[in-house]
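Researcher: Quick sanity check before group meeting.
Model: Go ahead. Protein one:
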Amino acid sequence: MSAPTLETIRIAPKVLLHDHLDGGLRPQTVLELADAVGYSDLPADTGPALGDWFRVAAHSGSLERYLEPFAHTVAVMQTPEALHRVAFEAVEDLAADSVVYAEVRFAPELHLERGLSLEQVVEAVLAGFADGQRAAASAGTPIVVRCLVTAMRHAARSLDIAELAIAYRDRGVCGFDIAGAEAGYPPTRHLDAFEHMREFNGHFTIHAGEAFGLPSIHEALAFCGADRLGHGVRIVDDITDDPASGRRLGRLAALVRDNRVPLEMCPSSNVQTGAVASIAEHPFDLLARLRFRVTVNTDNRLMSDTTLSQEMARLVEAFGYGWTDLQRFTINAMKSAFYPFDQRLALIDDVIKPRYAVLAG
C-alpha cells in the first residue's frame, strides 16, 4: 500500500464542512471585481502579489487580526453578479480538488452595502452554486454543494439569518452558523436564533473553541444545542494526562466524544490565528486517536493559501496517516453533513469507499 502524497490525495474523494465563501476567492477575481465596482483600496495590483498579501496578513497570531483582510473580499461581493461569480468559482475550485460534497458558508448581512436585500444576496449565491454544480457535472467532476448562512456574533441580525436558513432550506441552504470574534460575544447572545432553528427542525453549527476556550464549547452545546462545532480545537483543554490510562477526558470532552459531536477542524487556519503553534502540535492527532469525530477542513482557502488536499497532505506529513485514516476522516465528515441520510449513505457507499479502495490497493 503506497503512502498518500499530495498528488494522490488530489484525486481522492473528499468532503468539506467548513469553508467560508468570502475567504476563498481567487486573487485575480478579487482584482477584477474591485475594478468593476470601483473599489480602490486593495493592497496589491496583481493576482500573485495579492494572494501573497492575503496569506501574510492572515498569518497574524490572533483571530481578530486574521479577520481584518476579509474587508477587501466582502467589499467586492456587493452585487448579484459578483456573488454569483464567486459562488460559481468556488464550486469549480472545489470540484477540481475532487471534493464530492461541500457546505460553503457566508454571512448575508455583510453584502447589503449596495442596496441588496438578504433574500437577493442568498438567491445570487445559490444560483452560482447551482450553475457551478451543473458545470462540474458536465465536466465529469460531479459535486454537491450546499450553503450555510452565517450570522455575525457581534451583530444583532442572527434571528433574521436563522429565518433565512429555514425559508431557503429546500432551495440549497442546509443550515445556520454564527461566526466572528469569540471573546466577548458568547453564543448565548443568539438564543432566539437557535430556538428558531430547533422549532423548525433546522440544522446548525457554531464557531466555538477556536479563539476562546471551554466555556464557548459548553455554551454552544448545553444552551444552544449545536449539531456541530466549528473548530472546537480547545476541547483538548479538557483532556489531561493520566498515569494509569494515559489520557483522562473531562466531562465536557467526554460528552463531545460520547455524543459524536463533529469537530470541524481547520489545521492551517488554526496556526495562522495562533490557536496552535504548528501543524505538528495541532491536537487533531490526539483527538483522532481518542476517536473523537474529527473532520478536515479548509476554513478560508484564499487566506490560508490552501485546498482540502493540501490540508490532508499536511496532516499526513505531520502524523504519518495512511489511506485508512484519510478515508475515516472523510466518512466522519459525510456522516456529519447536513444532508439527508440516504444521500449521505449513497456517497459513502458508492463514491467514497470504492475510490479509496482503489487508492489504497
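Researcher: Fine. The other one?
Model: Protein two, sequence then structure:
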Amino acid sequence: MAKLNLFDKFVFFLNSIAATTLLLSYLLLYVEPKRFAFVSVLSLTVPFLIIVNLLFVIYWLLKVKKQLFLSLIVLLIGFNYVTSLYKFSTSKQLESPENIAVMNYNVRLFNLFKWIPDISVAKDISEFISDKKPDIISMQEYRHDDGLLLKGYYKFEMLSGDKIRNGQAIFSKFPIINKGSIEFPNTFNNAIFVDVVKGRDTIRVYNVHLQSLKIDASKDPLKNETSENLVKRVGNTFRMQQAQADLFLEHKAKCSYKIIVCGDLNNTAYSYVYNSIKGDDLKDTFVEAGNGFGRSFDFKFFPVRIDFIMVDDHFEINGFKTFNVKLSDHFPIMSTVKVK
C-alpha cells in the first residue's frame, strides 16, 4: 500500500469491501431465508458484485499493480458463480433427430395492461413460437387470449383469480397422459406438471413459478420505497419462496420418470431456492450449453437470470439459447435435450 497514492488507497479500500462482500455471498446458496432472510437478500446483488470486481481487476491491471490479485482471486474462487452470469465458451448446438426443444417463457399476461404500446403480443408470440418450433413450452403469467394460436400442441393450464384468471400453462407436441398442480398457500403462484410420452419414454415436465419480488424492471426500486422496507419485503418473499420450493421438492421426490424442470424462480442462480431445486440431480442447461450473459429478465441495471430450464441425468444437453425478443419483461429461453 505504501506505493499507492491517496486516490488509489481509497480505490483499494472500496475494492476490499466489494471483494469481501462477493466472497461472503458465495455462502448464500446454503443460507436458509427462513432463518436469515436479511442476509439472503444479498444474493440479488451478486451479478453487480461480479461486474464491479471485474472492473477493479481491469483498473489495477491497467496500472500494473499487484492489488489486482485481490478481486482476481475472489473471482477465481467463485468461478462457477461467474459462469452462471456469463459463459465464455461458444454456445453448444448439437443437432439430432432425437432432440427435444424445450422453451420457457414468462409472457406477462400477454401485455394485458399495455405495458408495451401498439403491439399485439399474443399474436407476435404465436408467430415467434411457430418460427422456433419448440416441442414443449412452459409459460408463466399465462392467461387465455384469442390471439395466441398454437397448432399441434396438447395443453394443460391452471388458472386462478376472479377478475383476471391467470397462472401457468404447459404445451406439448407429445401426448399428455397425466397432469396436476402443486398448490402454494396464500398466493396465486404455483407449480404445475404434465407427464408426456415420447416413443418409449415417459417424461415429467414441471412448470414452477415461485413468489414474485414485485419489482418493476423499468423503474428504480428505491424511488417509491425506502431501502429498509424493500429489504424487509424481499426477505419475506424469499421465506415464501423457500416454503414453495420445499413443497415442490417433496412432490418431485415421488416421481420415478425422467424429469425436466422449467420455470420462473423469481430468484437468481446465487440463491438458496435455486440451489435447493437444482440439487445434485439436476443440470442447469444454460451452464451446460449456453454462452454470453444468461440474461432472462429485462432489468435495466445489470443482467439478471431468474428463468431456468433444468434436466436430470437421463438427458444430454445439446443446446441453449436466450432470445432477445421484447414481448414481455422476460426473455424466452430454449434448450435442446435428448434422452440418453
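Researcher: One line on it for the slide.
Model: The radius of gyration is 21 Å.
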